[in-house]
């Protein structure tokens, strides 16, 4: 909230405090579903959230990972349309919710707040464009390496400095990498044999981050 908070005047801050609603979500619990009408600006306070979309034949694609403290769930409101994707908690998570109707009123009177959302939408669009190219043009190795680097950049390491601070099912890792679960498992095994990573259940250690970044970059 700090970035938005700094853009508000005293009256706007009072309204935010009065209307700020903290909600908790269990692991895999839906925050909103595709087709829902957008009601809230969501801010992830603690935990991890995935935005995803169900495609052909029920296959799921993870579109974006949310980390504290990021805002999400507002694009559809500004586009005056229902949500075109869903959001769910990766793990037990705490979120703050602000009514988008209140945000709309504030934007009408606060040009700095308007520019904040323009920047957020522009950054998200740029990342989406890059991701589309990567998911469609990179080979399987490049896509999986990129997914591991995305997890590292979003959530960091445990205290040992090599274990990713997120534990993902193979299916989720496949959905992030735009591949089948069997291909994800096979490619993970290849990375293990090449001593790029070590796997213990859902825990993944990046043993050679530099090489994974190289594989991700050149696909």
Low-confidence stretches: none
Characterize the largest beta sheet: strand count, sense, and whether it forms a barrel. Answer: 4 strands, antiparallel
Termini, distance in Å? Answer: 36 Å
**Amount of helix:** 40-55%
Q: What oligomeric arrangement do these chains adopt?
A: single chain
* Count of alpha and pi helical runs: 9
Task: Give the structural class.
Answer: alpha+beta
Shape: elongated
Average pLDDT rating: 92
Question: What is the gyration radius calculated from CA atoms?
Answer: 19 Å
**What letter string, H or E per element, gives the SSE order?**
HHEEEEEEHEEHHHHHEEH
Number of strands: 10
Order of adjacent strands in the largest pleated sheet: 1-8-3-6
Strand content: 15-25%
Describe this entry's structure for a reader.
This protein has helices at 2-5, 10-19, 75-79, 100-109, 111-137, 140-155, 170-177, 181-193, 209-218, and strands at residues 21-25, 30-32, 40-46, 49-54, 60-66, 71-72, 86-89, 93-99, 197-200, 203-206. By secondary structure, the chain is α+β, with helices and mostly antiparallel strands. A hairpin with a 2-residue loop joins strand 9 and strand 10 (203-206). Helix 4 (100-109) crosses helix 5 and helix 7 packs across helix 8.
Features:
alpha+beta, four-stranded antiparallel sheet, 10 strands, 47% helix, 22% strand
